[in-house]
UniProtKB/TrEMBL annotation:
Organism per entry: Microbulbifer variabilis
Keyword annotations of the record: Membrane, Transmembrane, Transmembrane helix
Transmembrane segments: 175-201, 221-245
Region Disordered, annotated ranges: 97-155
Protein's UniProt name: Uncharacterized protein
Biased segments, Low complexity type: 105-116
Taxonomic lineage: Bacteria, Pseudomonadati, Pseudomonadota, Gammaproteobacteria, Cellvibrionales
Keyword Transmembrane helix: yes
Amino acid sequence: MAGQDLYQVVSTGRTLHAKEAGAVTRDIAKLFSVPEAQARRLLLKGWVIKDSLASSQALEYRAKLHKIGLRAEVCPTGKFDNQQLIAKIKVAQRRKANAAEKMPTSTASAGASKAGTAREQEVEKPLSVSNAKGSVAPPLDSEKVKPQATEPEANEKRAFFSNRKTQLATVGWRVLFGLLPALTVPTIFIGLAALCLYGAGALLWQTPLAVWQGELTGGTLLISLGGAAVFIFLLLLVALPYFCFPREMRPRPGEVPLKQADNKDLLPLLEQLSSATKLPRVQELIVSPDARIYCEPRFSEVMRQQLRLNLGLASVASLSGRDTLALVARSLGLYQGKLNGLLAWLVLDGVRRLELMQWALENDRSVLYRSGEPGPLKSLHQLLATCGHFLLPLIERLENLHRIVTRGSARYLECRADFWAADLIGSGAFAEFAGNWHRLVHADLMVAETAREASAVGQCFENIPAAVAWTLNNLDEETSNTIELAMAQASDPWDVFEAADLQRIEVVQKRNISGRLQRELGCTELFADFPKLASEVSGEAGASDCQVVENRRLLCASREAEEALQILDVYFNRLPPLNLLPLRRPATQEMQAMDLQASINWLRSKLIELRELREQRENTRQLMVSVQLGAALIRAKVRIEPQEYSLNSASLAAAQEASALKRSELEEIERQLQKIYSVFYQRLCLALVAMPARERQQARGMLSQLAAYDALATHLERLAGYSTSLSVFSRRLSPGLAERELVQKYLALSARELDATFATVESSELLKAQGLDSALCIKAKREPLQQLPQRHQEALAVVRTMESRCNYASTVILERYQIQLAALLQRCLHREGQLEVNPLRLLQAV
């Protein structure tokens, strides 16, 4: 339902049939079961009574209000806003209260004033407020009227976190005993700096002292200045780098502050998290394309309990909202409380400073020139950099000393951070959270390694968060088993990025902490445009001389597939088919009459339209699946948040209407795509006809192999739909499994579609000859359908397993198809070159 087709019902401030306002107010209060003070709001001119209604619903709503005696009008949605009226009412109440305070009052008048204030407070309570407009929405069903919720109750329903008291407490004696060992290494550097300053000052003082005593000689001046220079050199070489090397000195590509335009609801959610848990507040958000979520606060930020949070967008794209918030809570929980935050700052920042010193000395940096640029003191800088290499063993020993004396505190902080994550999601969900965390770290490392290899040849990812999400969803069984073995290894307590090991999981589960997260949420929806932001941040992470390429080109599993994608990019001008190429020529005789050059020229004129249609197709398909799931849940009488399923209301009729609308939009987009790609097929046929006889015969054989994949086109489309549906279920599966029957239905449909895909492949000799059946067995595997378990985490694992199987099957089929298609298109491109036709590619601006 389009936004411009929605309306709001607004009070005109007048009554019908010459009815008195008091009588209308009493009728409203009786009908809607609300106090008269709240019903009086509906008599305000410009008050939005109901918002976001279809035209028929708005007219019906207005007619029912007219029966009561209240005159209302229908306006386009967004024209009026109750927040302005509420602000005016509050200002008037404050003005009236101030005036009452200035007037002399007796005991009787004071009692009247209290009664008046109570009435004003009662009037100030609004009716239930709809989504974002602040409009009153009383029910209209006169047969069954439910009382409206008060504002605190409505806010509690909208809250994501319960305000229960935290089960975590700082152990004061444990923190105090940990502070002294944590000060060991900083004390060494402070003492060294003080010694150098004292030595340099004492030696420099010898010169004016000798002048005063009349004993100044050349030797005295030389010893004074030379000794002071040595002490200052030691200060610059050893002591100052520990304190003066900024954390920005080490390059972190892709880290940028989150702009206000990119933020939608993320900062308010984090504010709500801090208010509910008493965690430090997030004063600034830094986003990066990787999967790391962490805090590196300064001392002043720890004392203020206001931190900068580094949020890895790959975590947002790959994990559920629950797991992402658990990582956020864990990062903030390290510095919760001033005393505990001071200990965490000393323990973790000490290791960070020593590692930064080691990196800087290895990369010829010094306190004079932190970026290595030349200058007037270039010789001294080179001397400091050269001598710094001899200090590396000393820095390593100091780091080992710091780890030895702070090991207990580091374990305490690590355990406490895990408890904060469990405080959000619960101890029962911590094991699954740790497993997802391990897989995310592994996928992030794989993508980072691929990105380094790609940068060596001048390429970079188009969207790093999407690449990490794809890698995480496509981990094979062998890799998953390896990750499970890695969970048994003890983690490094000073590394905040390491996932929880089995021992840490066991400790958290023994605490039996109940989670405070009340409902699921999708973190990508908290950004204004998450895909755009992820692409922009990924572009910042890549080198300026690197070419941005699609993720699929860098994530290919084989060299053949990568070479095939390069050929497809040339033939389709980087716009290959999203599924299978339709092997049929255009429907109209006019287009069928075009020759090879005319077909290519026509395609060149449609490239921009083709790009837009591809984007619209993906967006519409995602929306259609979401709307269909929402309609199915409503039909199954499962309570949902309409906005989470791209719906305007929880009405079944509205959901079915929206589903039909999206389906018709998708069909129209598919029809236009088929029309353009049919000309690509005509181009292929014309090039094939122009080939020599022997080569043409070979090309026809390759074309018949491609035609064998047509039987899989419907299966691929359904598998993609089921995969998307299961992905939505995995993100929003309710703890009580209220949608059990519907999820089990989709699992059965997915399993049936996989079996049908296997059967289609096995019945085709051409597909079996290409090895597609064996590849499918290795990746997707044929397994019996499992019943959805009773426990939430086990059910979630079954849903995700089925989603992965659907993804694997689609990926294997499309990869084999693209290899076969590229082999044929390469011959066509070669023939087009021999015929000297103008190519499809657009001219690039120099």
